[in-house]
Description:
This protein is α/β, with parallel strands linked by helices and 420 residues long. The chain has 10 helices and 23 strands.
Amino acid sequence: MKHQIVIIGAGTAGITVAAQLLLKDKSLDIAIIDPASKHYYQPAWTLVGAGTYNFKDTERNMGDLIPKGAKWIQEYVEEVLPDENAVVLRDGTTINYDYLVACPGIQIDLDGIEGLAETHGKNGVCSNYTDPEYTWKVLQEFKGGNAIFTQPATPIKCGGAPQKIMYLADDYWRKTGVRKDSEILFITPGSVIFGVEPFGSTLMKVVDRKGIQLRFFHKITKIDGENKRVFFDIVQPFEKISHLCYNYSDLDDSEIVQGHANLKFDMLHLAPPQSAPDFIKRSKIAHQDGPSKGWINVNPYSLQHVEYPNVFSLGDAADLPTAKTGAAVRKQAPVVVENLLHLIKNETTINEGYQGYSSCPLVTGYGKMLLAEFNYKGERDSDPLISKFVDTSKEKWSMWILKKYGLPFMYWNLMLKGRA
């Protein structure tokens, strides 16, 4: 079996690229490979975890979203063989291609932290990345104590999500009266809460207002769910633990010994370790070694593979030094589409126009949000039109409305149809 263009993944990236290609040329022979029967609008899972969005509203049938004119192959990919211009499916079928767009998304590695697989989804250990409805259950059942929110050392989709649910939890617990009996901690292997200004400064004001303790340079290594303890390696030398913290206060029943820490928790929210899918990691289109090992090796500006010119990648599995978000895909997709069409027409022009744009809608409470937009240089890259009307670096109710209503509408009705 052969198709002109094979797209691996029917997530945000795959469907958007297919839709845009077919809007430009209905005669293209496109196949999309994805085993999933459902498609989820995951940016709303933060709101689901805080009880302000219905999980069912984030779900659509995949078959209803595949663009008309594209063939959907509902099967798992087992191997990518770029030297043979082929993809092998789990059922043994080989699909050949002229051009490949690899956008399989990201996988959750529950085995990346000792004890996580065993306690995930119980013992107050929750994650909006996997089950936001359980997060909401945990928030409602929390009666005080240590609420710990963590960030992993791996790249993750939507790097702001681990802290967004924390700000909403603080709001919710203030309403229910348990916040006064609680200590909220954000524990990260990084050195700052957000690396782009002025958004980082705004978030530090939120942290101060909410009385949240930050602990930096802490890499989570183990969870003992039954005994409610979480363990960290401290990856920065220190004289006093307070030197690696902000709004520091001692916690009951905590231990810090020789570069290691373990803390008692009453609820623990994880952003679990994440990686490219295994079939990508073992393929030749991924980096074989170095700090980017396992991620797809593409030119960061053209999104064309560095070694295989008929292969492109975008979205979460691509090795791009920017945040892995749907907003990034929205700017990446037109570059991939233009470059594919140039190659099909035997034109040598390659668009290197993607400059690393990504954005993170940072919810800071019910009815409050700022919109962090930035590029490869780590500079603010706010939309000039929106910025005329609102300062997106400040907490705004209008940005909350955008998050809850505007962005989902745009996603389902414009982006996945190739029109945004």
